Amino acid sequence: MNPNNIQNEVEHLRAEKPREGAKGELIYKLIQSKGKTMTTLRKATLPTLVTAVALVGGVMLMQPKAVAATPKTVAAALKKAMNYTIQSFVGEGSSRRMQSVTTVEGEKKTTKFVDSKGNLVDKNIHFKTLTGKDGAVTVTGSVLDNKMVVIKEHKARKGESVELKVTKINGKESKMIKVNGKPVSELPKELKEKVKVHMSDGKVVEGVGIIGDHSEHGEMSGAKSSMVIASLGQTNGKPMILQSGQTPSEYLMDLLADESRWNISRGVTYYGARLDRFALKTGGQLTPVELYVDPASALPKYLVFKGMDGMGMKIEDVYTYGVRP
Amino acid sequence: MESHVISEMDRLKQGDSEALHVWVSEHYDGIYRFLRHLTRQVEAAEDLAQQTFLNAIQALPKYRGESSQKTWLHRIAFREYIAWRRKRRLLLPLEFLAPKEDPRFAAIDAGEVLLAALHQLPSAYREAFLLFEVQQMSIEEIAEVTDSPVGTVKSRLHHARERLRVQLGGTFLEVSYEPK
ipTM of the predicted structure? Predict the structure, then answer.
């Protein structure tokens, strides 16, 4: 490293600023702690609270239940969550744009797709229950142009395995059907009533992936390729968890189930809240992601997204969950 | 100038929120930066900066203006950092995993090369270097913050530079022990 570079490094360090909000939060706490309104404080670090209480000589605060969260406990907590939103994004160089929003309310899923300008490009696609009385799922909606919709393997009532693939490129639709792993030109008659190949009021879908203008997970293979990433948030659309790949919820659960994919820090502080931090190990040119988890509930609280251009972090908002009883 | 300090202190001691706001705004960035570079962790630095200011408020009645507020706050911050350092083994470090060869990550990495090299040094060298070069404090002020003799601070700075020169290569910054 030459001297100029070293001097530049020093200058960078001298110019470093606190992240947005941190100072305001501190001032807020300090001012509040001088008054009599401790209960209005947001969750703060325990030492901060204790000190603040000491300052006013006032209310004693209970230490929150602190159980270390793990990816598995987070996955388990998410399975109990009833309502949430999956948002997928396409990363394009230094920017990202939203590609789709899937709202999950109970067993009802609704997905909307948007173009690079944020306009709605397709009617809603509804994914209903994965396992009906006869093992059937209904799919309605239309296939996106220049996209491929893959309907993954499905176990039908009598144990048949059916895989459907519908591709629509430049308006031309093609279908691929496999029954018990073997390609067939037409769906067997006995299955036709259970499974509809076209994307109307058909039946039976176990997983749906939208394969578009992205490369494989974790890779950026060239200038034309970009990434699909997704986040899981609440029903009002605020993102929460970032994922990568084609299948939102399943992929996310797989990711969380593999603890080796995460670096975990215990008891870090984020905007005044004592949380655990999960940092996704990318090992490649994937946008760095940090997930902040409430150790008591094991539910994610914040998503931190570091832009590819390094222009600081994009921080999403807090949310609440609907949790199954 | 002194009367301004006393007046400001009086307002702070009285819990004047406006004075508090101004005071924290004036000093927070420097204290945070010092702690961030010492800890290399944003969250830890924010925690320690909070604690520094809370401790400072409690200690305000004892502040006699014998050193500058900057030095006084850095001394409190440094004590907080020492206490944190004793306990930090409870936390796992998070390493930034972005590929270094990708220029798009350059802005994230800015300053990190030097920080990484500094964290290979003994802590006393690192602390002296950061206080002198980044916080731009004088040798005397550093001696007060770290509770060390002036000669020791000079020696630590010298060794820090020598070690960095070997680690990073090239001629390092010109040494000046004059107060800045």
Answer: 0.80
